Structure prediction request, 250 residues.
Amino acid sequence: MEYRDYGQDGLLREGERLDDLQRDGMMIIQNPDWFCFGMDAVLLTAFAKVAKGSRVVDLGTGNGVIPLLLSAKTEGGYFEGLEIQDDIADMARRSVRYNCLEQRIHITTGDIKEASSYFEAASFDVVTTNPPYMTNSHGLTNPAGHKAVARHELLCSLEDIVRESAMLLKPGGRFFMVHRPFRLSEIMNTMTRYKLEPKRMRLVYPFADREPNMVLIEGVRGGNPHITVEKPLIVYQAANEYTPEVRELY
Prediction:
């Protein structure tokens, strides 16, 4: 893949920008014409529990924001990101290099549907994923674009993600996902079918008087049936004003 260099030690390409992650001076490379990470990724990194020395894989890592943030927030030992789009994976690698994290984070270009062929079975303590939420390409003007791939299940399904996660996790390993509440029944059934027992769940509301628009869920490979539903997370207390809890998470 050939690019012209646009400053920042040759790591930025045309159309890209360097954004502050507001964590230990860490920066991330993004292209707003493709797709930029959102609140869902940030909330997932706050919800996920990563023990010291853990091996973590992020499925559908995009520009690598989840491994980057988790490497700063936790004492995890090694972070792997899997991304099918080669140009996005290249961007993630450059962000890793910019932050001098090559010894802790690695980005692999590959298909989630075949994740278990890239990595050894039962080789990770934690799987994280912020997958596409929508089930088809209805209404898309550009079904092949980066934003479409990020938002719609064009290249992988919920079942693909859960199946491969179960194969990659060690017994007792933990699965963390952010998704949409309207698919909660399907999520629970799919996780249970692949022996990723749902253990913890938190609904995210844009405002206290609105319906939830995100769900954070944790599963354990081979866990016993028992789920804890945590208190709701409210994002805004007024227009464009985060609640104190969300400001702390950010």
